Structures
1.
Amino acid sequence: MTWKVGSFFTKTAIPTPPEKNIPISNPRFKVIVADFYDSTTNNGAINLAAVLNLCEGIDATAYTQNFDHSFLNLESRNIFDLIDTGNSILSQNKADVIIWGYRDKDRVRLNFQAQYQYEDKGNSFISLMDCFYLPAEVLNDDPHKISTELILLLYGAVVSTVNSPEREMQIYRKYLLKKISAQLSQVDSLQSLEDQYFPYILNMLGIIYLSLAYDSQHDNDFKIINDLFSTALQHQNQILHPTHLGCIYYHLGQLNDCAARYTLSNSAVYFRNAIKNYQMAQKYLSKYTYPYDYGYICYKLSELYINYWKQTEDLQALRDAVFQLRESEKIYTQTLFPKFWAHIQEELGYLLHNLAHLTKSTEIYNLAVTAYQNQQKVDTEKENPLFWAAAQEKIGNIYYLQGRKDLDSSLLEDALSCFHDALYIYETARLVPNIKQTQSDINKTRQILAEIKEAEEIDEDEE
């Protein structure tokens, strides 16, 4: 990636916009640009939507309805209002991304929000706390005078924010990111920018490239992205708020997390760097002020510790994974994030089951059962029968292990009940492999029960 000297924000000539030759069959990402919190002009949202509509695959609309803008200062617990309002607008308009604009003196701050932004879906790396600043005058004028470079950067930010769990949308998103990245690599140097914007542009470039290269197996791809975030950190004296600094560390954690998972070399180094940068991010994104970012970082840390435990059988890594997931559980409640909460409960059940097995702790076994039962509060037998049956089977296995260890016929009978519940669902769905496995579980449980009863009868005869 090479840079030359040039202007980034504005040009006197009208630039050629990104190509927009779109077959009718291609998907389109629906973008809502919320009416800016701006006492000077009301045209910012409209102009930004017009700019984005120049871009392939984007259907942008300015949202000009009246709503309370007070939460856009991003301070204190207003973050809850911001997220809830954004999710409501996204849902009502069946949109993929909402852009919030907030005027700060002679600058406009943009924040990007997507569906499932704080859940483990899709491959979006951008946080709602990521801020992108640009001169307010850029959006006050004719939108056709905005530089091609800035259009590309905003376009890349929007596509990077899209977080659809649908495979087709993910494929198209990556296709667009390839085209955007190829054009960005030809952009003139950022050296001519005013210092106040430099770290924010580097941060956004890093997010765009990471969104494209997250599953790369080439160390060099991650090194290039690392340079962008690291250079942004070198200019932290131009960063306006500690939260923004936390976001950069957050993305460095994500970068190293992906590198540890996908590259064929240096995985141990990437693993350690991921943990270090995630922990640095948590210092700036505290659980009391920015709980969702903090909670999701805990979730990602748990995944790292799980992988390390699987590779090394280090018991402390397993304990650390449980601790981090417990922290995440405190943030993502059943009421606000039911599906993600259920997923966390399933993961907790798995971790606690293994921890109980290694420590021979009945108490931890019981905690594992509780976690799986919590999962079933969302993944009910009626709504998600296969998920419910899988959880019931796991509970049965825990009862079986405890009953076999303690020669407790009551626990073994509980295990039989769980296995039969699961078997009924699997038979109804005609899932032959699941049926065979559950029948095997039933047979081994009955065998242990028979042995216990036989031993009890012998004892009675001897008496």
2.
Amino acid sequence: MAKVKLTRGGVYLARLDPAKGAEVGKLRPVALLTDQALLDTEPPQVFICPLSRHSKSTYQALHLKLPPRDGLEVKSYALAEHCRSISIRRIRSERLARLDADEIGEIIHRLQRLIGA
């Protein structure tokens, strides 16, 4: 695949396999949370938040509901407890959609809740 221009808040398909234990895997949409200034340097790794069509009520405080838009065709949930760093080589698509600044802030707020900040 040709080099993709990555943007903060961009939603891309990423290959998250192999998954271990309760980690989410497979080819799925992810939202990039890495700061744009760092993305502009084309780092080898990026920090992402995986998206899913499903959310469990147990994790309601950590999941952010995202409405469909552009290439993100179904209601999705940002899974803060699964945020992690991945190689940019795992990114497998052009940008499907983009989260707005408030949505990015809400994911970060949920990450802070997760780590007790």
3.
Amino acid sequence: MTEPTGKPKQLVPYREMLRNFLIEMVVYGFLLVVYFYIALRYLAQPLAVVFNNNLVVYGILGLVLIIIQAVFLEFVTSLLFDFLGLHRLTSKANHH
């Protein structure tokens, strides 16, 4: 895409991109700390038992927990951006 002056058109303004990035980092940081304390408090002992008894199940549980965490973080961030009326940064054209 180019503007009439021949310069490439910037799809997402730099300030908007930086603002959204900082908001996402704050949200992810907060949720990561909450998740860490919840996992440490409620999952540490059961996961230690599974680790000692069956490494394959422990590995699968670890992967499932990572996937659940990623989906949850994306869901919460999407809700927050929709609530605040902010644009999501995506690679799709015309997705604002």
4.
Amino acid sequence: MNKETIHSTSQIGKSKSAIFKMWVRKTFIIEKLNNKFGYLFFATLFTAITFGIANNGVAFGILMLMPAIVLPAIYAFVTYPRIGITVFLTLAYFIMLIARIGVNFPLGTLMDGMEALFLLGLFIQQKKKKDWSTLKGPITTWILIWMIFNFLEVANPTTEARGAWVYTVRSVAVVMVTYFIFLFNIRTIQFVRFIIKLWLSLSFIGAAYAFKQEHFGFFPFEEAYLHSDPGIALLLFIGGTWRKFSIFNDPVVFAYIMAVSTLLCVGLLTGPFKKWKKAVLWFLIFSFMLNMLYSGTRGAFVLVPAGMILYAILKYNKNILIIAIIGAVSFIGIINVPTSNQTLYRFQTAFKPNDDLSYKVRKINQKRIQPYILSHPMGGGLGSTGEWGKRFAPGSFLSSFPPDSGYVRVAVECGWLGLLILCIFMFTVLKTGINSYYKIRDPELKSYCLAMVLVIFAFHIGNFPQEALVQFPSNVYFYLGIALIGVTSRLDNEQNKIKDATK
């Protein structure tokens, strides 16, 4: 074959390739399958699905249609992170309700997959325009240190429940990835507003659902759950009434969400919003606090007063001082007034821990475990206590220890070194948030920053009496709050540069 023949063959090949590319572009992109090929394609596809359903049942049809749902969803999550973030934040609220209804699907794995897609999108964006400055800062540094420490726990030589690490690290360290996703992709004040509205709307749905449980009873699937295990009744049936858990995993998560949502509204009340919007915020505060009482979670009752103390310090002035004194006197009266109401009585006992037998038992347990913590700088390994410890290391010393506290669990499983890192991390977040609050000029962004500081502070306080940072949606919204501290500061700096440049 001579050179002219080879060249001619090559040209024909290129010509066919170009024609094929033009056909694909015209058929799929320009005409969007609204043509003869598209009609034939869909007719063949749906005929095949029809025969498949007839022979194999509805499950076959659902399986065949899954790509039509999954592939666009994956594309949207990677290309349009705002859509993904909205879906992710919404699903974090409803994931436990969906599971309780009886949907047999690995929802936790789904959330992990969404986080992986967010990361993929982040790296694709960085490949186009490399700029990691958005993610820099002291908070990022300590989050990375805490994440690395938790991953290193897999090699902890003292652990007896190594298999539990795989399950525990997801809720402790992997979820921290969301901080970077939120910090990088929330870039406008309009999106911040949308997220705040979504947050409050979802919390109100949770409050309304609990109101329904309290005054109209449980749904049949909830009744089935409550009576599925005698241990559930021991935890949730107190004083002749059931503790309410709303759409969440348990009353603790529900109560904490109501408490932090209340403080979110308190922070927003300082913003330059219209009167009707502030009236809505006051209504939400009343709704959140009322329904929080139905949970019977004493640890959560302390969070709002604690958050208000920080609020009074940060917003210190004569009017705030007067309001704080009036509020303190009223509060003292509420916790000391004689009552036969079980909900109010349980609220009062939250502020008298020395009279509570369960609190005394916790103090004894914590005292008993202190020598172990001091002698194990990396602790006993992630998942070595509680239910995971019983599953992966039955009969071990730590498997029988009930942590009953987020910080105690960290001290036991990650040692005094892990507890030190976590405390420094928390301090860095609050310090950065308070400094940002005083530096931000824009009053709207200032109110958002204050709200996030109050939310993070409440989670921080709440992590001592209970485990506040390991279950949906608390774990996701905790890192959302941290990210919004950085976002509000960044947006304010951008606005100030523009204003200064136009002067």
